[in-house]
Amino acid sequence: MIKKILLIDFFTIFFLGLKKSAQEFSWDSPRFILSLRAGVACVLAIFLAIYTEAQDPFWSGISAMTVMMSAHQESFKKGLFRITGTVVGALLALLVVGLFVQKPLFLLLSLFLISLMGIYGSLIDKDRMYAWLMGYISTVMVILMPLGNPTGNSFINVAFYRSYEVILGVLAAFFIQIIFALFASKKLKSESKKNKSGVGYFIFPPLARSEKLKFLKFSFVGTIGVLIGPLLWMFFCLPGFSQIAVSIGAVLGMDTENTKYKGFLRVLGCAAGALVVFIFLGLGVNNIFIFLILLFLVSVFFLYFHFSDSEISYFGTQAVVVFYIGVAAGLTPETSLTASIERLIGIIGGVCTIVIVLNLLWIGPKEAQLLEIKKQDKKQDKKQDIGVI
């Protein structure tokens, strides 16, 4: 019990992953080269977002990071899914707000149905899972973030700038991928496989009725978790409100233990990113070129973990995200840790919310397996008792 409370197992897995990454490090490894490419793409995306006076430039850097992959075609595919999901989600949010902004009950009902559809679609449509996730998360963000000041312009601003920043980040990543492909000594062959199942683009793949029911049940549970956190945060006026739904959507999974570990990595990565932001503030960098160079170096360091195939990759992802939020709001770093601290509070709240909801309402595959073993043991014990009698 004490081991679980102190997260000893999670820390053990994490430190083993760090050790593995250190042992595998090489200056000419594909993983390190990919980290360099992604670092250039992220810095370019942030610089362009700042130059064009985007609302939150860090979203462009985050978008560039998430779509950068070793295979170019996979990177382009993920980038298109991110753009499509974000834009469709933003437009859907504006439609819902236009219809129900003065009707809170219908607004919440719409959010519930959209989240339910998004989670369910991501479960049964694996090929386009990322588009479904981005779609419902974007809808929730656009609707919930401006609720403190529910005017038409506030919703439109969030919808427009989120879409713009995502598109800018994805295009920056595409540009770097194309440049790399043109100047690389050897052209990388695409490893993507064509869909030979005969399933149409907008048709879900055939699933057994039991699988559909299981996915639908989990979608209901996940939707409750996605919405209950932001509503509680809004009711109690707690900091980090914008991160609640995003954090829940990011770590949500049918395996409860994996969800807990992913949440652990999210919090740990956030703390690491905030620490680096604190150091940045202490340096007091005012020169734009030095700022961009330092931004690149820190990005590459954390991106090396982000591209790890071990159990610590999500730690690197979150560290990069928080670092960008803390320093990439202008051509020089922020003057305080407020943004990073608020994000950390929101992340912890989101992770705790979904873990509690899953523990109360959902039985994951591992837990189900343990329950089945216990049932079998009880049956076996009964048989032995009857034999003795």
Low-confidence stretches: 187-203
Terminal residue distance:
37 Å
Q: Which whole number gives the mean pLDDT?
A: 81
Spell the H/E element sequence: HHHHHHHHHHHHHHH
Structural Rg: 22 Å
Number of domains: 1
Number of strands: 0
Share of helix, binned: over 70%
Would you kindly provide a brief summary of this structure?
This protein has 389 residues and is mostly helical.
Name the descriptors.
single chain; 389 residues; mainly alpha; 15 helices
What's the layout of helices and strands?
Layout: H1 2-5, H2 8-24, H3 30-51, H4 58-67, H5 72-100, H6 104-124, H7 129-144, H8 152-183, H9 209-236, H10 241-251, H11 256-283, H12 288-306, H13 313-327, H14 338-361, H15 365-388
Q: Explain this structure to me?
A:
This protein is an all-alpha fold and 389 residues long. The protein has one domain. The chain is globular and about 50 Å long. Helix 12 runs antiparallel to helix 13. Helix content is 77%, strand content 0%. It starts with a helix and ends with a helix.
